[in-house]
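Predict the 3D structure for this chain.
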Amino acid sequence: MKKDIREIVARIDTLKPIPQVANKVMVVSENPQSSMSMLSEIIQYDQALTANLLKAANSAYFGLSRKVDSLHQAIVYLGMDKVVDLVVLGASSENYSQAQEGYDLAGGELWRSSVSSALIARDLAEKTEIDDTHAVFTAALVKDIGKVVLSQYVAESFEKINLLVSKHGFSFREAEKGVLGIDHAELGGMIAERWRFSGKMIDIIQHHHLPMEARFETEAAVVYLADTLCMTMGIGVGSDGLAYRFQKNVLEKMGFSDRDFQEVIAGFGEQISHVEDLINAT
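Done. Predicted structure below.
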């Protein structure tokens, strides 16, 4: 018997919403005409965020010869990309800190896999004609937010879900849907809508396992392939990671070469290390 979907959806409100300032920063980042002064205008009235950016700019990570004492200076020294990263990472991290029992992920594992997926997605996006790499990065970062809500229900129904996967050839997503009435990607899209994300973001999150069905197919495909690469590297595998069908047609349509993937993987270690240093700096 399927769970009452209304009960599951109601638990969206137990999540910590993405702050409005982060939403505005994401909107600005999607506009190629945006400037650092526009970012500064949005952030300047958020005391905690301003303090964190000043702390990051003055940290040993950047090793600046002079102290930064204004938000505008901090944004100039950090650069728009790092400012957007810090805002989005900070806004998303709290929801991912706990263990996700249903998916057999220890505390912090979902967060690390989400950040890893976001970094890889951005690298892959830069190898395509996608202009809005910030949207791809953010969508990859928050794509699994539905797991945070569904985890307890997956744990309670794991035997039924696992039976569909192991005995009847379902993918984990199909088994979630069959047992619970909703899967984590669909729920993630609902969360993104509740948090007033852009239509593009909602579409990518909702279709990150089925990119060929997305309106923003290229962006969703990049996020899907980034997630697949993470699984290949053993990041965030959990109980569901090996129970998804690889969609070869997505890889063929995107036209990435083995060398493209090798380059992304080769640069990943340094990138995740830098991000962790940057987060620790705040």
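The two ends are 46 Å apart (CA to CA).
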